[in-house]
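Handoff note, outgoing to incoming analyst
You'll be picking up this chain. Sequence as last confirmed:
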Amino acid sequence: MADAKVIPFDDDRSRARRRPARAEGEAAAVRALPGAEEAPLEPGERGRVPGPAGPSGPASGPASGPAPDPGPGAEPAAGGRSGWERRLAGGLAFLRRRVTGEYEVDEFGYDEELTDQVLMSLLRPLYEKYFRVEVKGVENIPAEGGALIVANHSGTLPLDGLMMQVAVHDNHPAGRHLRLLAADLVFVLPVVNELARKAGHTLACAEDAERLLRAGEIVGVMPEGFKGIGKPFGERYKLQRFGRGGFVSTALRAGVPIVPCSIVGAEEIYPMLGNAKTLARVLGFPYFPLTPTFPWLGPLGALPLPTKWTIQFGEPIPTDSYAPEAAEDPMLMFNLTDQVREQIQHTLYKLLVQRRSVFF
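Most recent structure output, in case you need it:
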């Protein structure tokens, strides 16, 4: 199987979702470096590819993608395809690109096409039908440029991060993508490691986070870490310590806003009543949860409870007004960290008061 092309992370055209037209049998072209003469697509030109130049200039015909739906009951145009034929052709084209390696990943391993067409499609039923996620304040995420989303962490398994990723992907008016910072454990687990990279996740370190932010990406971080996701059920919705404020330092150096995010509903999917610490040490896990259903019911006990979720993105906290050396000021970092933590905690309490039921 051919290898996928690796594109420079700071190449803005990697996010334009275009692929140059190639002659049949021609090898996959290497994407031009930043600063090349080819201009990015205008918003109205997405889904079109440049055609061969004619006597009066370049052609502007539509790409070989699906034609607009003529509407219910309309007959397909002559030589056209029905809806299922177009979907089948698109699926076969996707598989061909996977087999031949004609797809693109950035330097972190992020595969936007696979994420949009496969991974998001797999998570969406869980997001829409099972947890019935309600999203508020998504307009607080900038339409362009970098931003750091800071959220609470809970639920025994990190489903909250995945649901937050779907929330941004499906609800943001500018169609932005969320790049999550994940713990080391994610990248040592087989299969999970590869999927995490493909979905745009990267190691939770300041260097990677700052590079993503400077490249104009939306980055998500959950500073509570394992202390938050593995806390007992009796401490639900009580934020744990936010580390040493490293996320604030990263945002200050990149000059991007911090967007607090509060997630309600994840705490109850696996009520953690105990922790088998000895077994956790043997397996190399930070904790081994004991819930009302797991491990007593075996694999069936691993199913999360169908709670009703709410994800609210709060007012952004700007950092671009601070001098570059502000990232080294421990008092400023402490104050900003405390401000973000208090805003998330206050919103959690407000959402808990407003919700009618854990499940409805």
